[in-house]
Design a protein that fits this description.
Blueprint: E1 2-3, E2 13-19, E3 24-29, E4 48-58, E5 61-72, E6 82-83, E7 86-95, E8 105-111, E9 116-120, E10 122-124, E11 127-135, E12 138-150, E13 153-167, E14 171-178, E15 181-189, E16 208-215, E17 218-226, E18 233-239, E19 242-248, E20 254-258, E21 264-269, E22 275-276, E23 281-285, E24 289-292, E25 295-311, E26 314-316, E27 322-350, E28 356-365, E29 370-381, E30 385-395, E31 402-411, E32 414-423, E33 429-431, E34 435-443, E35 448-451, E36 458-460, E37 464-474, E38 480-490, E39 493-503, H1 516-519, H2 528-539, E40 544-548, E41 551-555, H3 558-564, E42 577-579, H4 588-604, E43 616-617, H5 629-640, H6 651-663, H7 672-677, E44 678-679
Parallel strand pairs: 1-6, 7-14, 15-22, 15-23, 25-33, 26-39, 41-42
Antiparallel strand pairs: 2-3, 2-4, 4-5, 7-11, 8-9, 8-12, 10-11, 12-13, 15-18, 16-17, 16-19, 19-21, 20-23, 24-27, 25-27, 27-30, 27-37, 28-29, 28-31, 31-32, 34-36, 34-38, 35-37, 38-39, 40-41, 43-44
Helix pairs in contact: 4-5, 4-6, 5-6
Length: 680
C-alpha cells in the first residue's frame, strides 16, 4: 500500500523479491485500480524457507521498503506500507531591496496542530527562497514574512500566507514585497487661520514632521525629518506596506489649522498604492497673551528712643520714714526707614499647540530710566494652558512720582509685554507705629517697701512723656546706702533710673563700748578699768551673775572682774558654778559675755551713751537678725549656762557675734561692722 502516491517522484517503480540460496524470484508490483494498492504474484514456488524484500527503484537505485524471512507451506500474502514525503518551497520577490532597514530578514513558516517549522529565506538581487522537506502529506498553514527593528522594537510584516492548505506533493508558494513606498507633503503658514492654503501664504521650512508605523496595535516612531527651508516640503522614502501616521511637531507660539480634526494623517501603503503625496500641514501664529495686576506697598517703619529720670535721685530715710519719688519716661518717635515696592501677578496664556518655553523679566521705570528689575526666571507653559507668576520689586521711590511697571515675556525671538502705571501718595503700612510702655522695679532693697505706684502700662502712638510716682518706706533697713532701680521698656529698648537711699547709722560718739581687755585693765586715769571700779558698787550691789543654776559664774567685786578679764581659751559653756574665778570652762566666751554685760549695763545707766542695748542686729542673714543687743545678751547668757543655742549658731559663732558687739563702738568710734549691722 502506497500512501500519497501522487507525491512519488516521476519514474519510480515498485518490486517484490523472494530469495533462496540458489534461486531468486522477482515481480513488479502494479496498481491496476489507481487506488495506491500495488500487487504482484510469484507462482509455482516449492515449499521451504524464503527471504522476502519490498523495494522501489528510482534513477537506477533501489530502496528497501520492507524485508524478512518466512517458511512457505502453501499460498501466502505479504504486505507492506510506504508513504511518500513532500517538500514545500517558498519564493519571495522584493522590490527595491536596498531600501530595507539594515536589520531586515525574510522568513517562511509552516505548521499544523502538532508541528511547526520556520526557515530564513536567502538570496540577493530581490529574489529570496527556501524549502522545508520531509513533510508528511496533509493540511498546513503557512506564511512568508519579514522582520526588522524600528526604534528598538521588532516589526513583523506578513507578506503572503495560506490557511488549511492541502500539500500532497512538492509545492511552491510565492510572495512579493516592496521597499519603494513613499509619503510626502508640504508645510505652510496659514496667516489668516482659515485652514486653506490661500494665495500669498508662504511655505515654511524648519518644521519637524514625524512618521509613525502601527506595530502590534501601537504607533511606533519610524522617522523624523525637517521641512525644507525654501519649499516647505518633506518626504519619507523606502517604506514597506503598512499603516502609517504622519504628524508635525508643534512649535511654541503656533496653532495648527490643517489637517483637521486632530492634525494627523492616517494612511495605508500597499503594493497597489506605494506612493502617497499632498499630506500638507498648516499653522497660524498666535503668540502669547500677557496680562498683569499691579499693587503698591509703602511701608514706613518707626523706631523709638527711651530715657528715664527720677526725682529725687538721692534720699535719706531713717527706719519708719517714707518719701515720694517722681519718675519721668521720655519717649521719642523717629522714622527709621521707608520701603517701597510694587507687586502683583503676571498671567501668561499659551494658545499655541506646543509647550512655550519663556523667560520673564519685570522692570520698573520712571519717565526715562529703569529704576528696578526682577528676573522671574524661565518657565514652561503647556499647550493651550496658562501660568500665573508672582512678582515683587522693591526700590527707592519718590512720593507722588509716576512709575511704570512692565513685564517682558521672551519666547525665542518674540517678546510680549504687559504694563501698568502707579504712584506712591501715602504709606500703605506703618510698622512700629505704636509702642507698649511698661515699667518694672528690678531692685527693691531689703527692708524697704514700694507703695502708691501710679504707673499703668499704656500704648503710645507719638512722642510723649509718661510721668508717675511711688512711695518708698524704710520698714527695717539698717544703716547703709541702698539702690532702688526700676526699668522702663518700649520697642525692645529700655532705660533705668537709680535712686540712692541712705539709712544713717550710728555716728561718732553716739555710743561707746569697751572690749574685755579694756574692762579688765588696771584702774588708771579715765580708762575703762577706772570706770568699772568707780561704778561697780552702785550698779551691781549684789554682784554680777551670769549663766544658769549649776552652770554659772558670779563676780562680787570689781577686783574679781579685773582679775578675770581678759579671758582666753576655746569658747565653751560653764560646767559648774563659779564665784570670782580667774578662769572657767567657758574660755574666751565667758570673758566676752561679761564685757557685753558691762557695756549694756553702763549704757542703760547713762554712764556711757545710752541706747546701746536697744540697737537692732541686721543684715547677717541669721536667726538673730531683728533682735536688739539686750535680747542677744540674754540668748548668749542662756547658752553660756548650758541652755539652748539660737537657731543656726554654734558656741564659736555666738562668741564671734558677742565679740563684734563689744568692738562695735570701742572708745566711741563705730566699726565698719557696726555701721552695716546695727540700726536704731
Amino acid at each position: 500500500t502506497v500512501i500519497n502516491p501522487e507525491g512519488a517522484p516521476d519514474g519510480v517503480t515498485y518490486f517484490a523479491t523472494l530469495y533462496q540460496p540458489t534461486r531468486t524470484f522477482t515481480v513488479e508490483l502494479k496498481d491496476p485500480d489507481q487506488d495506491g494498492k500495488y500487487m504482484g504474484t510469484i507462482p509455482y514456488l516449492d515449499p521451504g524457507v524464503y527471504h522476502y524484500r519490498f523495494y522501489y527503484i528510482l534513477d537506477s537505485k533501489d530502496t528497501t521498503i520492507k524485508e524478512g524471512d518466512e517458511t512457505l507451506t502453501g499460498s501466502k500474502t505479504n504486505t507492506a506500507v510506504w508513504k511518500w514525503k513532500v517538500e514545500k518551497t517558498f519564493e519571495l520577490t522584493v522590490i527595491n531591496p536596498g531600501g530595507a532597514p539594515s536589520s531586515t530578514h525574510y522568513y517562511a513558516s509552516i505548521w499544523n496542530s502538532t508541528w511547526s517549522k520556520q526557515i530564513e529565506l536567502t538570496g540577493d538581487g530581490g529574489t529570496y527562497e527556501g524549502s522545508v522537506g520531509d513533510l508528511d502529506p496533509g493540511y498546513y498553514d503557512w506564511k512568508i514574512f519579514c522582520n526588522y527593528i524600528i526604534n528598538s522594537i521588532t516589526e513583523t510584516d506578513v507578506i503572503a500566507h495560506g490557511e488549511n492548505e492541502h500539500i500532497g506533493q512538492t509545492k511552491i508558494n510565492y510572495g512579493t514585497w516592496s521597499w519603494a513606498g513613499e509619503i510626502s507633503g508640504r508645510k505652510w503658514s496659514d496667516c489668516n487661520g482659515n485652514s486653506i492654503w490661500d494665495e500669498g501664504e508662504d511655505a515654511t521650512g524648519g518644521w519637524i514632521i514625524k512618521l509613525y508605523k502601527k506595530i502590534d496595535d501601537q504607533w511606533i516612531l519610524l522617522a523624523s525629518t525637517a521641512t525644507e527651508i525654501e519649499t516647505g516640503s518633506y518626504r519619507f522614502s523606502n517604506l514597506a506596506p503598512g499603516e502609517y501616521r504622519v504628524e508635525e511637531e508643534s512649535k511654541e507660539g503656533w496653532h495648527q489649522t490643517f489637517p483637521t480634526p486632530d492634525g494627523k494623517y492616517y494612511v495605508t501603503i500597499s503594493l497597489s498604492n506605494m506612493k502617497i503625496s499632498d499630506l500638507n500641514f498648516g499653522n497660524h501664529f498666535v503668540g502669547l497673551e500677557v496680562s498683569k495686576t499691579t499693587n503698591i506697598k509703602w511701608i514706613e517703619t518707626f523706631e523709638w528712643s527711651i530715657s528715664k529720670t527720677a526725682c529725687p535721685s538721692i534720699l535719706t530715710l531713717e527706719q519708719g520714714e517714707h518719701d515720694t519719688i517722681s519718675y519721668t519716661i521720655q519717649l521719642t518717635k523717629n522714622i527709621a526707614s521707608d520701603s517701597y515696592s510694587v507687586y502683583g501677578t503676571i498671567e501668561i496664556e499659551n494658545p499655541s499647540d506646543a509647550t512655550a518655553s519663556i523667560n520673564v523679566i519685570d522692570n520698573v521705570y520712571d519717565d526715562s530710566n529703569i529704576v528696578a528689575t526682577q528676573d522671574l526666571g524661565t518657565h514652561d507653559i503647556p499647550s493651550h494652558g496658562s501660568i500665573t507668576i508672582d512678582y515683587s520689586i522693591s526700590f527707592q521711590a519718590e512720593s507722588g512720582k509716576t512709575y511704570y511697571n512692565k513685564a517682558y515675556v521672551y519666547m525665542g525671538t518674540y517678546v510680549f509685554i504687559g504694563d501698568a502705571s502707579f504712584s506712591f501718595t501715602e504709606p500703605t503700612q506703618k510698622v512700629n507705629d505704636k509702642v507698649n510702655v511698661d515699667d518694672e522695679f528690678t531692685q527693691i532693697p531689703n527692708g524697704f517697701s514700694i507703695t502708691d505706684n501710679t504707673f499703668t502700662p499704656q500704648i503710645i502712638s507719638d512722642s510723649a512723656e509718661v510721668s508717675f510716682s511711688v512711695t518708698i518706706t524704710n520698714e527695717n533697713a539698717g544703716s547703709g546706702t541702698y539702690q532702688l532701680i526700676n526699668v522702663a521698656t518700649a520697642d525692645g529698648k529700655s532705660d533705668d533710673a537709680t535712686v540712692e537711699v541712705t539709712v544713717p547709722g550710728p555716728s561718732e560718739g553716739e555710743y561707746c563700748t569697751y572690749t574685755q581687755g579694756g574692762w579688765g585693765s588696771k584702774p588708771s586715769g579715765n580708762n575703762p578699768g577706772k570706770l568699772l571700779h568707780d561704778n561697780f558698787g552702785t550698779l551691781f550691789q549684789s554682784g554680777i551673775y551670769l549663766g544658769l543654776s549649776g552652770h554659772s559664774m558670779t563676780f562680787e567685786t570689781a577686783d574679781a572682774i579685773t582679775d578675770y578679764l581678759p579671758a582666753g581659751g576655746t569658747p565653751g559653756i560653764l560646767d559648774e558654778d563659779y564665784t570670782n574665778p580667774d578662769n572657767t570652762s567657758s574660755g574666751v566666751f565667758g570673758g566676752q559675755l561679761l564685757a557685753l554685760k558691762l557695756n549694756v549695763a553702763f549704757s542703760d545707766a547713762g554712764i556711757t551713751p545710752s541706747g546701746f542695748g536697744d540697737l537692732v542686729l541686721c543684715n547677717t542673714g541669721t536667726s538673730l537678725d531683728g533682735k536688739n543687743v539686750r535680747e542677744i545678751l540674754g540668748a548668749a547668757n542662756e547658752a553660756l549656762g548650758g541652755g539652748s543655742l539660737p537657731d543656726g549658731y554654734t558656741i564659736s559663732q555666738l562668741n564671734d557675734l558677742v565679740t563684734k558687739l563689744n568692738e562695735a563702738f570701742d572708745g566711741g568710734t563705730p566699726s565698719a561692722w557696726a555701721l552695716g549691722h546695727l540700726q536704731h
